[in-house]
Amino acid sequence: MCAYNRVNGVPSCADSSLLFKTVRGEWDFKGYVTSDCDAVAIIHNDQGYAKAPEDAVVDVLKAGMDLNCGSYLQNYTKSAVLQKKLPESQVDRALHNLFAVRMRLGLFNGNPVPNPFGNIGMDQICSPEHQILALEAARNGIVLLKNDAKLLPLPKSTMSLAVIGPNANSPQTLIGNYAGPPCKSVTPLQALESYIKNTVYHPGCDTVSCSTAAIDKAVDIAKRADYVVLIMGLDQTEEREALDRVDLFLPGRQQELIVSVAKAAKRPVVLVLLSGGPIDISFAKDDPRIGGIFWAGYPGEGGGNALAEVIFGDHNPGGRLPVTWYPQDFTKVPMTDMRMRPESSLDYPGRTYRFYKGDTVFEFGYGLSYSKYSYSFTRVSQNNLYLNHSSSLHTKETSESVRYMLVSEVGAEICDERKITVHVGVKNNGELAGKHPVLLYVRHGNHGNGRPKKQLIGFRSVILSGGEMGEIQFEVSPCEHLSRANEYGLMVMEEGRHFLVVGDDKHPITIII
């Protein structure tokens, strides 16, 4: 899919270098290229790149686009041909790519019923298997961000529970953006009520925007309950396609409500956040009266039940954050400044976990569990990686006199031959069974001068009972995982020590040129 944006003034869908040279040439892509929705119309209507609608059609078809999400090709391709701006051969080329994919899918093989996916009926809609999968996905996606003094899981013998927050009883918030209708909706409040019969609920805010908050009422309810769960965060009135957030704080008076309730409660409270993007909740992270924090994303139809299971210990959380949670100050960085690497002289902190040098609320990959896990490298197939076996390979030196080789010159055969098999031992040191994701990173021995601080190689999940040990395997491709982009955008492999890192354990790999 070619995007809306222009690169060096050329719209992505009209960029023949991108679509032909890179996509079909370097990447050997055999499918079809479609536009993002209305990306062709934008070329004429908004960007002014094409003088007429027909010119936009000509630009994208000649550039290698095959299909338009929108109506521009439907409305203007014929007139472009009649005006002699577009040869029919370009239409034929696009049709060839489109029908070739349909043929590969078997759509012209006669009766579709015997073919794979040819007999999908209504019995597969909302089937028990699919509903179990929705619940499992929600369980796995919940991230435990804080659990002071082992507040969580809450005891099932709890006599009374207060549930407060605008997202506690909103089935629509669970679904998020771009979703079909759920099979059934169980809100977090309803799921928590199934555990604790004496549950008292108040939304606390009029809406998620929380311009009006009933803080006194919420405080009164919190004072009388054994435990308090606050279910706060965002929804599609705050973030969605075509609606960007302008800060990273909770909306309106949500923070005020949370702090007031936490101050009044008998015990530290549990805070649950529903949101698609990160939130600066430094206040909650540092407040001892907020003992537990969960982030659940928009967890789908199974989200309410999954949250209740995690809060009361029927599921051991194991999710990890898929993005860095930056503080509010990060919004001062212009979104149009897309440099990855930090520039300390310009007070620029960089971007992403690989390069960012500023403070974080929570790091990429962060996530706690009710169990403690430990790791060790049990077997690594090779510790030294030699790249000087062929006289045809050229070596160069960086400004630091570090020798390197271009990945493009190493070749696929050598890259495959040098793959490293890594075995990692994992132990569940807790009492509860859990599904635990293990993240394997790599970092260069000297991570300055434009090198990433660390880079994720991959992750594997392992299910372990309390006290159980297991082993998982990773395959490390040196050309992919031990390389980095230099200042010219070329992938290079540098001589010297690299470290495989999992948890607090690390293992050296030395590249020798």
UniProtKB/TrEMBL annotation:
Residues 436-506 form the Fibronectin type III-like domain. Keywords: Glycosidase, Hydrolase, Signal. Pfam families: Fn3-like, Glyco_hydro_3, Glyco_hydro_3_C. The keyword Signal applies. It comes from the Eukaryota. One of its GO terms (cellular component) is plant-type cell wall. Gene3D superfamilies: Glycoside hydrolase family 3 C-terminal domain (3.40.50.1700), Glycoside hydrolase, family 3, N-terminal domain (3.20.20.300), Immunoglobulins (2.60.40.10). GO terms for biological process: arabinan catabolic process; xylan catabolic process. One of its GO terms (molecular function) is alpha-L-arabinofuranosidase activity. The keyword Signal applies. Belongs to the glycosyl hydrolase 3 family. This is Fibronectin type III-like domain-containing protein.
